[in-house]
Design goal:
By secondary structure, the chain is an alpha/beta fold. A nine-stranded mixed beta sheet has the order 1-9-8-7-6-4-5-3-2, with helices on both faces. β2 and β3 form a beta hairpin. It starts with a strand and ends with a helix.
């Protein structure tokens, strides 16, 4: 499925969002736990039991960011019957991208083992990430590092295929500093792990930032060729920051589309 601009506008109608989201904006409290390399926050509704889970990895060019930068996501998702987890991972330059991917996998393993104690269902976890976090979720999900993951919600990165990115002149600024060694590009590219097997249902959103649409569309096509169910969301109405920041806000088109994906995948 491709969600184009026309569909995006239709999806932004507030009626598509569940009632009561406006009242759900207050940030719920989280339980913070240490999963080994770093910490993570678990948000769960009171009395939760066997709820689906969204496992979120923040962005920040692999160098900055923190698990508390979640905006309206916890409140919105809890109000709609989900648990929500947001993780920290070690940052560059102390930890390279391969180490960061390992941190994501360790955090996921901790959540899968322990989320039932917080009312979550370990067999209904969707991995979600924005920017650098989108790359890390895509990488770990495609290479099998998130065993049992029910779906992937990928929000705006160019780093799906690093060799293709370099070939198109897109290996600039943050990307060239982070991925400076071409010998590592294949291992760190989510696209390297696509061929040959079907992957969990995947939702791919892209903003109007440079290269996002081209790289996201190519990755979606590659996934579809493997037999994977893919939803591609045209988010050119958004900037790279607003496509993350606005998630969970009333009337937001990406939120409506992503919630439909979540409900069909784990709801």
């Amino acid at each position: 499925m491709t969600i184009d601009r026309r569909t995006l506008l239709l999806a932004s109608v507030a009626a598509l969002l569940p009632t009561g989201t406006r009242a759900a904006r207050d940030m719920p409290s989280a339980e913070t736990v240490d999963y080994g390399p770093a910490k993570l926050d678990i948000y769960a509704p009171d009395g939760a039991k066997d709820l689906p889970v969204v496992f979120f990895v923040h962005g920040g060019a692999w160098r900055t960011g923190k698990r508390s930068q979640v905006n309206a996501k916890p409140a919105f998702l809890l109000a709609n019957g989900f648990c929500f987890v947001s993780i920290d991972y070690r940052m560059l330059p102390q930890a390279d991208v391969a180490t960061q991917a390992g941190d994501v996998e360790k955090a996921y393993a901790y959540v899968r083992t322990n989320i039932a104690q917080h009312g979550g269902d370990p067999n209904r976890i969707v991995g979600m990430g924005h920017s650098a976090g989108c790359h890390l979720i895509a990488l770990t999900g495609m290479r099998g590092g998130l065993p049992g993951v029910a779906g992937l919600l990928l929000d705006d990165t160019r780093a799906y295929d690093l060799a293709a990115l370099a070939g198109s002149g897109g290996m600039v600024r943050a990307y060239s500093r982070v991925f400076s060694d071409p010998s590592q590009w294949a291992a760190l590219s989510p696209a390297s792990y696509v061929d040959g097997r079907k992957h969990p249902p995947t939702f791919i959103a892209y903003s109007r930032a440079d290269g996002r649409g081209k790289q996201s569309t190519a990755f979606a096509e590659r996934l579809r060729a493997s037999g994977t169910e893919v939803t591609l969301f045209d988010g050119t109405a958004y900037t790279h920051m607003s496509i993350n920041r606005d998630f969970g806000e009333d009337g937001d088109a990406l939120t409506a589309a992503a919630l439909a994906f979540l409900k069909s995948t784990v709801g």
